[in-house]
Amino acid sequence: MSPENKICLPQNLAARLASLPRPLVMTNGVFDVLHRGHVSYLNRAAELGGSLLVAMNSDRSGRMLGKGPDRPLNSAEDRAYVLAGLESVDLVTFFDTRTPVDLLQIIRPDIYVKGGDYDMETLEETRVVRSWGGQSVAIPFVDGFSTTALVQRIRQSPAPLRKAAFLDRDGVINKDKGYVYRWEDFEFVPSAIEAMQKLQSAGYALVIVTNQSGLARGYYTEVQYQRLTQSLRQHLAEHGVKVDGVYHCPHHPKGCVPTLAVDCDCRKPKPGLLLQAARELGLSLSNSVMIGDKPSDKAAARAAGVSRVYSVDSDNAEAATENMDSDKHFASLLDCVTDLLINTSREIA
Ligand SMILES: [Zn+2]
Fold first, then answer.
1. H or E stretch including 295?
2. What is the pLDDT, as a whole number, of residue 327?
3. Which positions of the chain have pLDDT values less than 70?
4. CA of residue 273 to ligand 1 center, whole Å
5. 164-348: what fold?
6. Cβ partners under 8 Å of residue 105, min gap 6
7. pTM of the shown model
8. Do 3-154 and 164-348 share a fold?
9. Ligand 1 mean position to 253 CA, how many Å?
10. I need a labelling partner for 97 at 20 to 30 A (CA). Which of 71, 131, 245, 333 fits?
11. Which CATH class is domain 3-154?
């Protein structure tokens, strides 16, 4: 049965209850973020009878339990759907009050089960269920599982930041023919893809950061740029390279497209593209590396706090005439990456 069909509003319960195999077991709870403890508890509850009905706290009712202002984290609808996906659960319904006593009187289960170390003798629910000859049973939770503890653990340990290889595009990955915007004109630097594969295998997130002033200059449009980027990503994907991000600056202060002719924070040597990538992708800038062919690549990397900066030969005139003064200089991206990976493996060893 699909999960939707196991969810029933309280007003429609009568018809559904009649079709549930007896003895009918009922339990209740919030079941906010399901964990192993819940699944094992519900299995054991189901084994006590012929079918298991779970009465779930509505969002309002869940908030009354004082587990925190943001609990439950998942809406009643979503919690019910997940619960209903369990084989042990035959029907899920809701209650909007602090305790399920009113609902209990409508459902009249043969066995009422509560999870945890409850003294069932003192519970109102026990008195109610015994009034029609039913039983009341406590099933202790398996130790070591708790949604509250899980949520705390997730909040206290943010995902570790990844190291990234920031790669300039034109002149580093592909030959810099000047304002390339068509895939037909895009020509990879020899072994560039192999170099990217190696970086990826070594655990680097691959992030392309590229100045695209051709957009501000009106040489090509954002749509054309994105089309090329899509082709690039796809081509790399076909070679097993997953690019984590491609960030571009479309601006230039002397551009002719009014909206893009601005002095921005993202055109290298400004660090905007790298900072944005770090924020969005969860990157550790100090553990990252920048590989570029122009002084502006180095300046952007340094300003962003990237610790290692490498340069490669480019056929770009600007880059060739300026001394990039990076940590290390290489003839190609692959030479650069090979050296980088040998040295970092030594550092770790
Ligand atoms: Zn910009």
1. helix 295-304
2. 73
3. 315-326, 345-349
4. 8
5. Rossmann fold (3.40.50)
6. 128
7. 0.58
8. yes
9. 9
10. 131
11. alpha beta
